[in-house]
Amino acid sequence: MPTRRAFLGGVSASLVALPLRAQGDVPQRLLEARAAALRIAPGGDADTACLTYDGVIPGPLLRAKQGEDVLLRLVNKLDQPTSLHWHGLRAQNAADGVAGLTQAPVAPGASFDYRFKAQDAGLFLYQPCGVANVVEQRARGMAGVLIVDEANPPEVDNDLLLVFQDWGLDSKGGFSGAFADPAAAAGAGRIGDHITVNAKAAPLTQRLAPGARARLRLVNACAARIMIFTFEGATPKCFAIDGQACDPFELVRNTVPVAPGARFELMLDMPAEEGAQVRLGVWNGAGAALRPVAAFKAQGARVKERGPFAGVAANAHLPPEIKLDRAKKTELSIEPPEAPGGRWTFNGEPRGFSGKPLFSVKRGAALSFGFANKSEAALSLHIHGHAMRLLHDLDDGWEPYWRNSVIVPKGARKHVALLADTPGKWALRCDIADHEQAGLATWFEVV
Known about the structure:
This protein is mostly beta strands. The chain has helices at 134-139, 182-186, 433-437; strands spanning 15-17, 28-38, 48-53, 61-65, 69-76, 85-87, 111-117, 122-127, 144-149, 158-167, 194-197, 200-201, 204-208, 213-220, 227-232, 237-241, 244-250, 255-258, 263-269, 277-282, 291-298, 328-335, 345-346, 360-361, 365-373, 379-383, 388-391, 398-403, 405-408, 413-420, 424-430, 441-446.
């Protein structure tokens, strides 16, 4: 269907359809991690020394059908070790891509094969994880998207992928500041002042037919910035978060916070009036006006009005409930480094991906985590390989959607629950790269 492949004009992430499976074999795709000089800074003629996949930012858009086997070889042509983590893929421990935990870092000149089954339909992000210089690699552009298509996707007029990144650049297009900044590691992380959408300077402008129905796939590929999006001019409905479908719902105050690594899918029905606009902005500081990042303009022949949007099929592999009364409960007090160059701690102890796990449980166990943020910065805590429920702060219920990660505001406490249904070593870390690099990472084991 052409409308399902109608991505934004000028998107630098090329759309790559994974080849059809050969008889008795799984075709392999090559992906090169390599440096590239790209025009990122707005205006001027200076290139930026980026780190990329296949020389483009975002990296090549990978696409698979639900249930397909995927085989990808990462070839490292950088001068530093790297890895490839797939945000949101469940039950794929050997391919989870956490350097120092599920694999050794991929050394310069070496390669690593990732093989997994695309068992869940959804929107996923790939980027480095667990390497010593993870801040530099993500801040210099290393991120890409994997889409696993549903068997019965919703009918839309436009399917739009928006990958957001921010860049800390000087006037000549070079990177400003150190990639290992103790203040950033203990605070909000490396926040760039230049925002791009699909590697183009924001705001992006897209023309859509009046009355058109557009599927918006929002991906935060920033190294540290938590993006608080607000829509003006229309009320889209959210129907999938972090790669998992949910019942469609309207955003509270048309606003949604999206942490690094998070993905939200929204259905937007454009106004029927010629010339109407739907604007997308991000929070730009207390008391400041929204910073515009995208505008959708109604222009052209009016599209026939569609009926109410019913959503997409929920993931049948996820449990209908999690028995919290039988769950193994783990409370974690998370504290920032006490001195510049120090490490984050869990319950007063530094951890990481080496050493003993937080705990070991048998497959099928229900788990509950409590996260107490003792710092002055927001955290985005990500549990690998599982989908989890965000529990209510005031009662025993949970939110009606699944998450890979949860934002824990400064000084706050949040609880999540999940079913540990796949054996392996599973990471628990902050998606803010500066925090991860400074030790806000640990792991647990399912046997």
